[in-house]
Amino acid sequence: MAVPKRKTSKQKKRQRRSHHALGKPSLVTCKNCGSLIMPHRVCPECGFYKNRVVLPPRKLVTHA
User: Fold this and answer.
1) Contact assessment for residue 49 and residue 42, using Cβ atoms and an 8 Å cutoff
2) What confidence tier does 64 reach under pLDDT thresholds 50, 70, 90?
3) In total, how many domains does the chain have?
4) Most buried by CB count within 10 Å: which residue of 18, 33, 36, 42?
């Protein structure tokens, strides 16, 4: 079984893991209401997807 001859340094280990960082999600504007949403998903504000209503619009709840 192969065994490393030397300990992997912190620098080498961190260089290898430099591509593991998470990127920012891409956002698009809803064509109906203009809010930012993730692409290919129903807009949570107005309920539209591909120019038709898929979900009923979300109503704001006010506590008295």
Assistant:
1) yes
2) low
3) 1
4) 42
Task: Kindly state the helix (H) or strand (E) to which residue 12 belongs, with its residue range.
Answer: helix 10-16
- Residues near 37 by Cβ (< 8 Å), separated by ≥ 6? 27, 28, 29, 30, 43, 44
List the domain range (segments joined by +) for residue 43. 25-55
pTM over 0.85: no
> Using the 8-state DSSP alphabet, how is residue 15 labeled?
H
Measured in degrees and rounded to the nearest 5, phi and psi for residue 12 equal -65, -40
Q: Is 42 exposed, middle or buried (0-12, 13-18, 19+ CB in 10 A)?
A: middle
